[in-house]
Amino acid sequence: MKPNPVVWFEIYVQDMARAQRFYEAVFQTKLEALPTPEGGASDAGMQMLAFPMDMASGGAGGTLVKMTGVPSGGGGSLVYFGCEDCAVEQGRVVTAGGQIHKAKFAIGPYGHCALVVDTEGNCIGLHSMQ
Q: By CB atoms within 10 Å of each CB, which of 61, 70, 75, 112 scores lowest?
C-alpha cells in the first residue's frame, strides 16, 4: 500500500443546499457541481458538489453527495480536513449551523485537532500543526 492511501471521500447529506452553505462558510471556499457518473446514478437521484481539488496533487479529493436511500449522520468513518490553524475553521462552525463536538486539542507532535458536527449530523475532523 502507498503512503496516504485515501484518494477520495464522500460526505452524505440530506439537504444539499444547507450542507453547501455550511461547508462553504466554515472552509471559506466554493463547492462546484460535479456531474454524476454514467450508469444510472443520476436516475437514482444523486447530486454531487466537489471540494476544490487537483487530481494530480497529493491528498484526497471529495464531494458532498445526496443520494436517494443513503442517510447522513455518524457511521464509523471520520474525514479530517487540513487547516492552517483548526481553531479558525472551528470558530465558523456554530455560525454556519453546526456544532462543536470537541474543541481544538493537542495531539502531541502530530499537531492539533477539533471535532465538529455539520448540519447533516456528520462528524468531521479539523487538523492543523499549530
A: 75
